[in-house]
Amino acid sequence: xxxxxxxxxxxxxxxxxxxxxxxxxxxxxxxxxxxxxxxxxxxxxxxxxxxxxxxxxxxxxxxxxxxxxxxxxxxxxxxxxxxxxxxxxxxxxxxxxxxxxxxxxxxxxxxxxxxxxxxxxxxxxxxxxxxxxxxxxxxxxxxxxxxxxxxxxxxxxxxxxxxxxxxxxxxxxxxxxxxxxxxxxxxxxxxxxxxxxxxxxxxxxxxxxxxxxxxxxxxxxxxx
Length: 224
Ligand SMILES: [Fe+2]
Description:
Order of helices and strands: HEEHEEHEHEHEHHEHH
Number of helices: 9
Strand content: 5-15%
Structural class: alpha/beta
Distance between the termini: 8 Å
CATH superfamily: Metal-dependent hydrolases
Largest sheet: 6 strands, parallel
Helix content: 25-40%
Oligomer: single chain
Bound molecules: fe (ii) ion
Number of strands: 8
Strand order of the largest sheet: 2-4-5-6-7-8
Radius of gyration: 17 Å
């Protein structure tokens, strides 16, 4: 429910061949459904919802033509809460996951002031909010008041499976384990950007320790 496989619209897949290659690997790893979520970030990735939907349909038909037996079940976005977010809220066009969830991300380096207000406004407009890869933000640790506040606000957490294999380093790996073990994570995503990620994903899928951790918890992915 989180990957970057629309070619050339963000820092994900560079071309259609790469997107198809990643989808093949996802299928081989055992995935049957995929929701693609390109970045919407001001000013770095000035994507437009209609254009992204058009490109998604192109990926979908190319995947069928290539005989890749994986279900592309939706197009959504990974929306950065940034200086352009107020504008998005004013004229909401969010591409949602499962028709109701808006996937958001924060800056990896610092907390944006007013972030919680933006989340509150999204919720007021009827969207459920999913925070992408909470383990990747150094300022968000288990037991911190910041985390408590987000959970009290009803924000769902989506961890990256690759974090559990140490793909982003030791600290995110540790935080991901702690969050999942504490029952704070409702969803899992791959955040696949390219073939390197897809290869790492097949490695982590064979990791017994990761498997054991995930077996103990229930996630909402099957409901999407
Ligand atoms: Fe992402």
